[in-house]
Design a protein that fits this description.
The chain is α/β, with parallel strands linked by helices and 554 residues long. It folds into three domains: 19-152, no CATH class; 162-397 and 541-550, 3-Layer(aba) Sandwich (Rossmann fold); 410-535, Rossmann fold, CATH 3.40.50. It contains 17 helices and 17 strands. Helix 2 crosses helix 4 and helix 5 (133-140) runs antiparallel to helix 10 (274-285).
């Protein structure tokens, strides 16, 4: 090269370099919604952004299923974080470290991290909008990401911290009232017996019938019933009429309340994902969840010491209070029985013993499944075979084929999660606008959802089994999809946008999966599924076996 031309070449290259857009060098342009510099003409996605002013024509579609697959891919990473922080202050009360997707969104954040990392490796640039101050800073550290000005952090921290302190103070007042309201119920229990520990489900009754265990308490006078502390005193007063039911609040002590004001998970400095862990901790801390769990643990330990029961069974999901109960009961020689009462599915990460460094030692002595399919799913999740047995489903009775009529309305079972239910309703409205289908919408019994009715979208209070006929069933989460498939009905499952909805179906069953704009097309192609034998998935309840496990007489 001619040495005299070298400065001119370098100058030209510098000018060319300066004229190229940032997107030529970074595959992900990370911005908050108030700072959109450099995003013109780029395909875009939005995370934790309620409103975007970017051109909707450039929005990247088809990410719903990709997000779900990413969520499945990060499972072991979540487990590893739970192990690494099991010794943190307050870790024993942390929902994040339980790896429960229905309670913590850390898994969703890890899934978005995976997707943004994949986008950063693509040749075409993508703008990523994010208004979450912790997630933004986390994503900004990924290779191939060019980040703009991050959202302010301190206002969010201050707001969440204040909300958490207020929530815990309010909790202490409620718990003080609960102790006084339930104290007399201590006399409903006798030491040395066997008990069911249950939630205050609206389907349970004061005559002993229980939504989780069916008529077992009615048929077994020697069996006591203990109400979890999430059951409010007013509801507990309705359920204790049988004289054998009592609230755990009755064993609570006012002296425990001051410590609850300061109970929260405090992660130690982390080498991996520090921004996401800080986010998870402050979101947890903005509620009274950890304090509520600590209260549950103290009450159940006091009850165990006082009652010294023979055996205790409960609807098991492997939450942190359950692992504490198992350890406390084992020290006293109390037999523990977990009942897998509804569903498992591939997304219920908390039901695996791999969430805890304690592994299988944190599981109950016995885990009783509601059928062969869910037993197989639990075994695949790592539950030891010698702990498992099938005892039958008390909540999902054996069903005859459900009435199918292609001209009948579509039955919509709304999710318990408001954001997911909202996406379901948007999909319903979009399909209803085609003028071909009618919809019967039933919201979750414990989580009402308000929506406007019209001639094509009507509310129903009747369960699926009580409908005269339906043409298809539209679900997102919950067990209704399982009931529909076992009943031989076309079943469509929404894979939501920007969120993860837990697929609770056993591995042997599959619904038609759609994104939000695909409901009309799926309904147009809907046909009854191939028949599935009910007894390949579930089993009838064996109440004699229950009494044998609990060591009580009828």
């Amino acid at each position: 090269m001619n040495a005299g031309k070298l400065p001119f070449c370098l100058l030209a290259e510098a000018r060319d370099f300066a004229s190229r857009s940032l997107a030529d060098f970074m595959a992900v342009v990370l911005r908050q919604s108030r700072d959109l510099a450099g995003t013109d003409g780029l395909a875009w996605i939005a995370l934790s952004v309620s409103v975007s002013t970017l051109d909707p024509a450039y929005r990247r579609n088809g990410l719903a299923k990709r997000l779900e697959l990413a969520f499945e891919a990060i499972r072991d990473r979540w487990y590893a974080l739970a192990h690494a922080h099991a010794g943190d202050p307050g870790a024993a009360f942390s929902t994040t470290l339980t790896c429960a997707p229905t309670i913590s969104d850390l898994g969703l954040m890890l899934a978005w991290t995976r997707i943004v990392g994949e986008l950063a490796a693509e040749p075409a640039a993508t703008a990523v909008l994010c208004d979450d101050p912790w997630l933004f800073r986390h994503l900004a550290g990924l290779p191939g990401v060019s980040a703009g000005r991050p959202p302010a952090l301190w206002p969010a921290r201050l707001r969440l911290a204040a909300r958490g302190l207020a929530a815990r103070a309010a909790l202490c007042l409620r718990l003080a009232r609960a102790v006084f309201a339930t104290r007399a119920q201590r006399g409903h229990h006798r030491s040395g017996g066997s008990f069911l520990l249950v939630y205050g489900h609206p389907g349970s009754k004061g005559d002993g019938f229980d939504a989780y265990f069916g008529p077992l308490p009615q048929q077994t006078p020697a069996l006591g019933r203990l109400l979890h502390t999430d059951c409010l005193p007013g509801r507990a007063a309705e359920l204790v009429a049988d004289g054998r039911t009592a609230s755990l609040h009755a064993w609570g002590r006012l002296a425990w309340l001051p410590a609850l004001l300061f109970t929260r998970w405090r992660p130690r400095p982390a080498a991996s994902d520090p921004w996401l862990l800080a986010r998870a901790a402050i979101i947890e801390g903005s509620t009274a969840m950890a304090a509520t769990t600590r209260w549950q643990n103290r009450c159940q330990r006091a009850w165990l010491e006082a009652m010294r029961p023979r055996a205790v069974a409960w609807p098991w999901e492997n939450h942190c209070w359950e692992r504490d109960f198992v350890q406390a009961a084992r020290r006293l020689g109390v037999k523990t029985i977990g009942y897998q009462h509804t569903v498992v599915g591939r997304h219920m990460y908390n039901q695996s013993p791999r969430i805890s460094p304690l592994g299988a030692t944190a599981l109950p002595d016995r885990l009783l499944a509601n059928g062969p399919a869910t037993r197989a799913d639990l075994a695949a999740a790592g539950v030891p075979e010698d702990r498992l047995a099938v005892i039958g489903a008390t909540r999902l009775a054996e069903a005859a084929p459900l009435p199918y009529d292609p001209a009948a309305p579509v039955f919509v079972a709304l999710s318990h999660d408001e954001a997911l239910a909202d996406q379901q309703m948007r999909a319903v409205r979009l399909a209803a606008a085609a003028g071909r289908w009618r919809f019967l919408v039933k919201d979750h019994p414990m989580y009402p959802f308000a929506f406007a009715e019209d001639e094509r979208v009507r509310r129903t209070d009747l369960q699926l089994q009580k409908q005269q006929a339906v043409s298809a069933v539209f679900v997102c989460t919950g067990a209704v999809g399982l009931e529909a498939l076992l009943g031989g009905l076309p079943t469509i499952r929404l894979v939501p946008d920007g969120l993860v909805a837990q697929d609770v179906l056993p591995a042997a069953l599959k619904a038609v999966e759609i994104e939000g704009d695909g409901l009309a097309e799926a309904l147009g192609a809907a046909r009854p599924p191939a028949p599935v034998r009910w007894d390949e998935v579930l089993a009838p309840p064996d109440f004699d076996r229950w009494r044998a496990e609990l060591e009580v007489e009828a």
